[in-house]
Amino acid sequence: MFSKSCEYAIRAAIYIAAESSVENKIGIAEICEHIEAPRHFTAKLLQILSRNRIISSQKGINGGFYTDKKQIGTRLIDIVMAIDGNILFTGCGLGLKNCSETEPCPLHDKFKGLRAGIKKMLEESTIENMANKLKKGNGFLRLE
Question: What predicted TM-score, i.e. pTM, was given to this entire model?
């Protein structure tokens, strides 16, 4: 459903929100280890999230990534839009370029409902909600 980039970005944002603070920043190596993501690829995604003010970063000896009080309320849809744009909410379920309301693919009507449900879920879910689940042990970010 999500691109690999988007999956890693969502996981990283949740991990950063769960484990960091303005005083306790998280390094790229720790993030990648805990979300099972390649370092170079994840670093590029974190740059995008930082440019979009979804997370913050600080360079230097005590540097790393963190979320502030405003950022922790970021909705997951904002991460999806920053990484993948709106293709998840507009694209064809079969990947057809010309699928539309006037010329629908066989899945069009059913897929339209699924897209709307996914969009609603992402609009209602925040980084903070997901980080709290992680902290309480009601979720995980890596397979073990």
Answer: 0.89
